[in-house]
Amino acid sequence: MLMTNRTITMTHLTSLLHKFMKSLLLLTAVILLPLTAEAKIFLLSVGVSDYPGTQHDLRLPHNDAATMQWLYKENKQAKTVLLMNDKATVSNIKTALSNMVAKATANDICVFFFSGHGVKGGFVCYDGFLTYSDVAAAMSACKSNNKMVFADACFSGAIRDNGKVSTKYDGWNHNIMLFLSCRSNEVSIETPSMTNGFFTYALQHGLRGGADKNKDRIITAKELFNYVSAKVRKSSNDRQHPVMWGKFPDTMPVMKW
Predict the structure, then answer these.
(1) What distance in Å separates the CA atoms of residue 62 and residue 45, rounded to the nearest whole number?
(2) What is the pLDDT of residues 43-56, one digit of tens each?
(3) What interhelical angle do 61-73 and 198-205 show, nearest 10?
(4) Whole-model pTM?
């Protein structure tokens, strides 16, 4: 009977093990690469409708914030935080902002959304004011190359400081896109017949795909501005004019599906 030699030398065994480990490492790298390379989206969504007392209450900002969180949660890469009404204190917002920007890497998208009362100089939270410089300082510390602030608040266009970069808001220079619901002398409009303010209604529709003019599943800053601006001007009978401002390319991705 023919017998097969089943012995193997130590040198041959070592060579086979080396080849096996090399193949295993290569396979592991191939499997892990898409997971580690895919960009994340971070959103802090804030809305205040119910202010202390009743004199300054609004109808829709809390729903604006919830709508934005719902929209971003539809994207599997998104991590969201929602603060509404009495949870939207100055301290809570600052803490959530700091936590969000600390997590974002250079390839991630980092978004701060606010809906509520606005004043020339900041946003009106449940218990006080969040200044433009507070937001600028937090966002400028973020490593992300794709940072944006969406504000559905009266006079929000004043963040631009009349289109000039002042030393007070110098933090806006750090590749941050500001998309503001109205000019510095305008108010943000909401009506009882709608579930969101004019700006947020157009914004969420644009981010869901309405603004994706070339259908590449990447919505750029320019695509979003063109879509939202036209919708808001039409809805408001040309009384409200969204403003986009900052140092960033027109092709900056604001949403990837």
Answers:
(1) 9
(2) 999 999 999 998 99
(3) 10
(4) 0.81
